[in-house]
Design a protein that fits this description.
The structure holds 2 protein chains of 2 kinds. By secondary structure, chain A is mostly beta strands. The termini of chain A are far apart. Chain A contains no helices and 11 strands. Chain B is mostly beta strands. Chain B is built from no helices and 11 strands. In chain B, strands 2, 4, 5, 9, 10 and 11 form a 6-stranded mixed sheet that branches. A 5-stranded antiparallel sheet of chain B has the order 1-3-8-7-6, with no helix packed on it. In chain B, β9 and β10 form a beta hairpin. Classes of the chains: A mainly beta, B mainly beta. At the A-B interface, β5 and β10 of A face β4, β5, β9 and β10 of B.
Amino acid sequence: DGGITQSPKYLFRKEGQNVTLSCEQNLNHDAMYWYRQDPGQGLRLIYYSQIVNDFQKGDIAEGYSVSREKKESFPLTVTSAQKNPTAFYLCASSVGSNYGYTFGSGTRLTVV
Amino acid sequence: GENVEQHPSTLSVQEGDSAVIKCTYSDSASNYFPWYKQELGKGPQLIIDIRSNVGEKKDQRIAVTLNKTAKHFSLHITETQPEDSAVYFCAAGLVGQGNLIFGKGTKLSVKP
């Protein structure tokens, strides 16, 4: 079955540590996205990539980094520079920019 | 840039009643308007979308209407059921360019 997989589902890290969230899709989608979801804030865009080896900052990119070395994969690193990293992170993909997104099931990151 | 406002933030209805969620957008160039349903602990799922060349679209109990002149679009759910209880997000964007901008979500509760 085609889909988009985020792992792990839950992640705990100590403050000051970098952490990488995985996102893999087998839908052959060109575009991939990372969103952060906080209560009452909706979905806020962190980074997006429309093609391999290219990506653009979203509205809240500070403290995050991404790579797009393969079409199927778009990992997100939450660095120690991110001041408030505890949140629910969602990865999505689409055939092209702004066609219907397919979302993963999310990773809940807790930094203690 | 695009800005999407969504109302109400919470909505409670009796089973069998209709529910309406409204969104307004700011960028008249936007031409793609999807709606997503998010159940607790899961990623959002596309339930219906509309493009700006269409004024209304229906899929069983769900319909979306678009008023380009007023720059607003609405989700209508008829004959609501308890399993419709979830958070609903609207979004707007330009097909082929950039990324979707999401509203802050509406928590719909359907009481049996």
